[in-house]
Amino acid sequence: MHHPRTGALVRVTTLALLWGSGFLWTRLALDGGLTPAYLATLRCVLGAAVLLALARAARQTLPRDRRTWRHLAVAALLCNALPFLLTSIGQQSVDSGVAGVLHATTPLWSLLLALTVGSEHRPHPARLAGLLLGFAGTLL
To answer: N or C: fewer beta carbons within 10 Å in the chain?
Structure first.
C-alpha cells in the first residue's frame, strides 16, 4: 500500500541529492580543468536558460524598462554570479563536503550579522532558538 508521505519523501530526497551534489560537481569540474570564472558563467547561463524557458511556457513577458533590468543585474551579480565565482575559487583548496557544510551556514551567519549590526532590533526568542538549532544541526 502506498503511504501518502512517500511521494513527499521521494521529492525531498531527490532535491537533497541534486542540491547537495552541486559542490561535488564543482570539485569534479575544477579537477577536470575548468576555471572558477567559467563555472560561474556556465551556472548563470544555464540558470537563465531554464528561467527563460519556464517564463515562456507560462506565457510571461520580460520587463521592458531599464530600471528593472538594472535592479535585476545588481541582484544577479550579488546573489548569483559572485557567490558562484567565490565558491568555485574556494573549492580549489577546500573539500566539497566542507564547502557544502560552510554553505549551509550562510543563513545562520546572515541572521547573526543582522543581530550584531542592529538591523534586527528585537530578536524574537524563537528566532534565537532557531539560530542555535541551526548551528547545532550543522555541527551534527
So the answer is: N
